[in-house]
Amino acid sequence: MTNKPIDFRHFYQQIALSPLSHWLETLPAQLQQWEKQPHGEYEKWQKVIDFLPTLDIEDVDLKNAVKVTGKAPLSSGEKQRIIHHLMQLKPWRKGPYHLHDIHVDCEWRSDFKWDRLLPHLAPLKDRLILDVGCGSGYHMWRMVGEGAKMVVGIDPTALFLCQFEAIRKFLNNDRRANLIPLGIEEMQPLGVFDTVFSMGVLYHRKSPLDHLTQLKNQLAKGGELVLETLVVDGDENTVLVPMDRYAKMKNVYFIPSVPALIKWLEKVGFTNVRCVDVAVTTTEEQRKTDWLDNESLSDFLDPDNSQLTIEGYQSPKRAVILANKANN
């Protein structure tokens, strides 16, 4: 079997007659450039997608989970073959996925986060949505389940693109969500999305205010930003700047308090800024599973004090902040 490059032409056709049509001025050339510098494992991961079978579907539930039910149970051999192929795409970070008789038990119970934030969002029905740093796309499918018109995820990681395309194949090639392998800094200011999500990205940015401005530039007037990020306790002047690593992550630059984060958002021009959820990350939400070869949260915490990271910082706490782009 000859593996085929992931084809973005369907997406180009989708957006040609949409508010995103002006993205076609730059996007095809950017993706051609991306494909010229593939990850060393990219060809292997593409083959995994090709090897996955197309199965008859009885039901798809994206409202309550990302779940596909087949018309007939998988045979033991079919199930083992599919699991073998999907395991070639480890690590599976965000999930879970329920694919016929297979449970992809990802490191993160991303449904926990979704259940916390969903009640606070402006209804997603019929909205054009951008999910920045979308990973394998779990939350994108949940957005589709809420009735979104179209969801565009961006994440430059080739593995996440292949994981997304594998899940899409099980969803009968559903085109309501699309993952584009770019970073937010590579996007022109489109200014058309009704809702923009940035979850788990801000603390990886060397310039957080620039990131917030980039997010605002993608929103339509009056549109809603959903920002989820690590935070620390403190007042509006409190910002943690880890010297080396934070919870064993080397690319963490700034972790603000909630009041500081609200000030940042107001400083770059957002309105109606409000914190709707703060939650300490638990080992029930982030943990080691068979779908992950790497360490997970329990390895990142002080073994003698779970309220501290292994470096001695406050253990991970995450906040959800909503804000709007001004109408004028």
Automatic annotation (TrEMBL):
GO terms for molecular function: methyltransferase activity; transferase activity, transferring alkyl or aryl (other than methyl) groups. One of its GO terms (biological process) is tRNA wobble uridine modification. It holds the Pfam family Methyltransf_9. Keywords: Methyltransferase, Transferase, tRNA processing. Coiled coil: none annotated. InterPro entries: CmoB (IPR010017), Mo5U34_MeTrfas-like (IPR027555), SAM-dependent_MTases_sf (IPR029063). It is an enzyme of class 2 (transferase). The keyword tRNA processing applies. Its EC number is 2.5.1.-. It catalyses: carboxy-S-adenosyl-L-methionine + 5-hydroxyuridine(34) in tRNA = 5-carboxymethoxyuridine(34) in tRNA + S-adenosyl-L-homocysteine + H(+). Carboxy-S-adenosyl-L-methionine binds at K94, W108, K113, G133, D155, P156, T157, I184, E185, M199, Y203, R318. Homotetramer. Catalyzes carboxymethyl transfer from carboxy-S-adenosyl-L-methionine (Cx-SAM) to 5-hydroxyuridine (ho5U) to form 5-carboxymethoxyuridine (cmo5U) at position 34 in tRNAs. Belongs to the class I-like SAM-binding methyltransferase superfamily. CmoB family. NCBIfam families: PRK15068.1, tRNA 5-methoxyuridine(34)/uridine 5-oxyacetic acid(34) synthase CmoB. This is tRNA U34 carboxymethyltransferase.
